[in-house]
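Weekly sync, protein design subgroup
Attendees: M.S., D.O., the rotation student, P.L. (late)

Item 1: inverse folding check
M.S. brought a backbone from last month's batch and wanted to see whether the design step gives back something sensible before we order anything. D.O. pointed out we never logged the input encoding, so this time it goes straight into the notes. Structure tokens as presented (248 positions):
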């Protein structure tokens, strides 16, 4: 893996980036520095290493600088390949390569030909074969059939309560399936949505509306049980920002 990373001024000198709190900007730099050659980074040790609040990680997601790949705080840096070109003799494929082949991210995240010395098509075909082997030999995230999980109903309920237009993408389905495999049911998902809509409506986080965090990766992540069992909040009961308990 390459030991140097480039950061383009066209990314970090934009209004969108400069409006971020300094702590969040610093976290982005460290995530970039610690990313592998495909732009994938395990964020948890980086957050702990620099002493950043996990809310800063969530803000980078909201502002679309990074995207979650799974519920273990593994993220993809969206503009990584625009800022970094890895020579093929130094390139090392990400151990999370199978997460980069799903339909939401598409093939543009595959390394370019001059990085690998092989065609994009061959690379994509290999990843598909590897993914099929993993799906067959490793039952991770596949304990229960997709046929019994009401993905569309859960996303539709979230959209109804938040006025958003989320789609039933593979990334959103991963979060729902993880919780469903922990034996949570449809009513539990609805209760979490109701609790956090009541809790976060009208609040701000780092100057941004807290409603932006009302999304599948937040609500159906690893703090799902906390959200499910909290006392529903109402506008007149609003608490300070420190008590929001964001899951990032």
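Designed sequence read out in the meeting:
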């Amino acid at each position: 893996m390459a030991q140097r990373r480039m950061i383009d001024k066209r990314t970090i000198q934009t209004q969108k980036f400069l409006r971020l709190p300094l702590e969040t900007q610093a976290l982005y730099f460290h995530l970039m520095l610690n990313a592998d050659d495909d732009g994938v980074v395990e964020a948890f040790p980086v957050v702990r290493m620099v002493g950043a609040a996990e809310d800063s990680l969530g803000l980078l997601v909201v502002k679309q600088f990074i995207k979650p790949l799974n519920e273990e705080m593994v993220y993809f840096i969206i503009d990584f390949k625009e800022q970094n070109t890895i020579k093929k003799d130094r390139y090392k494929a990400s151990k999370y390569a199978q997460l980069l082949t799903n339909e939401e991210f598409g093939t543009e995240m595959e390394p370019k030909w001059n990085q690998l010395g092989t065609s994009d098509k061959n690379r994509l075909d290999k990843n598909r074969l590897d993914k099929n082997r993993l799906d067959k030999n490793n039952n991770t995230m596949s304990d229960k059939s997709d046929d019994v999980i009401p993905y569309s109903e859960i996303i539709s309920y979230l959209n109804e309560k938040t006025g958003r237009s989320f789609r039933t993408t593979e990334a959103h389905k991963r979060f729902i399936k993880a919780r469903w495999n922990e034996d949570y049911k449809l009513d539990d998902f609805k209760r979490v949505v109701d609790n956090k809509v009541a809790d976060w409506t009208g609040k701000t986080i780092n100057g941004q509306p807290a409603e932006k965090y009302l999304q599948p990766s937040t609500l159906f992540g690893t703090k799902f049980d906390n959200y499910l069992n909290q006392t529903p909040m109402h506008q007149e009961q609003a608490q300070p920002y420190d008590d929001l308990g964001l899951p990032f």
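Discussion: The two ends are 27 Å apart (CA to CA). DSSP finds 13 helices and five strands in the chain.
Action: P.L. to compare against the previous round before Friday.
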